[in-house]
Design goal:
The structure is a homodimer. Chain A has about 240 residues and is of the alpha/beta class. Helices cover about 45% and strands about 10% of the residues of chain A. In chain A, helix 7 runs antiparallel to helix 8. Chains A and B meet through helix 1, strand 5, helix 6, helix 7 and helix 8 of A and helix 1, helix 6, helix 7, helix 8 and helix 9 of B.
Chain lengths: ~240, ~240
């Protein structure tokens, strides 16, 4: 369990460099050191982030910067997304404790887990949630729900550390890598597009998003991914004969 | 339980007004609104604290200021003291979760609980710990233990709320009925059979079983089932044109 790769905390479009620094501190306070950034507003690297990180500057030195969420999670096997308000998204919503227990179990099985955190003001957008297998929602006071980015990171890091002794929930499942699920989603989208499934055109974008969410949410194993590629190939092949 | 008086968070000799404001926000995020201050370095009230508190300014307006810890806890029935390093103190040391569970139980019995937080740099001194019935210690990374004052307040407030028995309002997923999943599995099996997917015949039974397991394992919603029927119909229809 102690050799489990720590989850990667991915800050999506963070605005204030000071919050990135504070997030790095909060992570290191609880033994996490893998940070990634997606399109930080004020550029990267940034000296104001380093100033706020105090002794956690090495996390920032090592933090890689990506242009999109898809690119930032490409090598992750499982993705969690933190958001205060899942609107019309049918994914499991977990409290931080349960989410980090699951992350521990996956990590113990050698899986790489990514956790997405939204920007200070706007949070994550629906399209950012696509790769997520589940949503993490902190049970805040509904009358004053605004959690700062660094605070949200701190709470998840705290729960990661607390979960060190937690039972292993999905350790046995040979989950497909995130990017294999992505390729499966692409394959289905292409073939269904050819088959005229995304109709009417005004609804096509929404239908595609729903279908991608469906694949992400299913905790597909590597064998499942092969089966679903194979089934689709076979169905599509009939047509070309 | 819901009528339990919330614990009073007492900041002892806080230095930075911004941290007092951030602490107020963190408290209100988890439904706490009773703050007291002991000898804040930069005087009180302080506009920089208010600026950082955003919507939690009313906590600061109501926060009373005391000259000593003894005075600040005089009307409390039970006192907890947060510190990273209890040195030669023979009191129980509790993790935040256990401490806040105890605080809930005391509050439910009508007791007023105070929680002491030390200054940013120095923490609490041994003399500050005198009134404490127990010590609360956050299980930080021993190689990087420095928790910011506002972060420590946030974690305790979070655990207070969690200790409520967490009214965990999670999105209810509209899972498909078992027999709808069965019909979906039948539909796929028929179409894939027609498409020659189950080949060679010696492996067909096993492949069918795997595919049925896949649908069962996925926690499909009713909308997912519709989507997967529709996708299959569309793929199969191309052939009959």
């Amino acid at each position: 369990m102690t050799d489990a790769p720590p989850p990667i905390f991915i800050l999506v479009r963070p605005q204030l460099p000071a919050n990135i620094g504070a997030a790095a501190r909060g992570m290191l306070n609880f033994g996490l050191d893998q940070m990634r950034l997606v399109a930080p507003r004020d550029g990267w690297p940034n000296p104001r982030a380093v100033a706020m990180a105090s002794g956690a500057g090495r996390l920032l030195d090592a933090a890689r910067c990506y242009v999109s969420v898809a690119e930032a999670v490409a090598d992750c096997d499982y993705v969690l997304a933190t958001t205060a308000r899942p609107r019309g998204i049918t994914k499991s919503v977990l409290p931080p404790q349960k989410a980090m227990e699951n992350a521990r179990a996956l990590a113990a099985a050698g899986k790489r887990v990514g956790v997405l955190f939204g920007a200070e003001r706007a949070g994550l957008e629906n399209r950012d949630l696509v790769p997520a297998g589940a949503i993490v929602s902190v049970p805040v006071n509904p009358d004053f729900p605004s959690l700062n980015l660094a605070q949200c990171v701190l709470l998840l890091a705290y729960e990661w550390r607390r979960a060190a002794g937690a039972p292993e929930a999905f350790a046995e499942i040979d989950l497909a890598a995130r990017h294999d699920v992505e390729r499966l989603a692409d394959h289905w989208e292409e073939r269904l597009d050819e088959a005229g499934f995304f109709f009417p055109p005004t609804k096509a974008a929404r239908m595609k998003l729903n279908l991608r969410n469906l694949w992400s949410r299913m905790s597909l194993t590597r064998a499942d991914v092969q089966t679903l590629h194979g089934a689709l190939r076979q169905l599509a092949r009939r047509d070309s004969n």
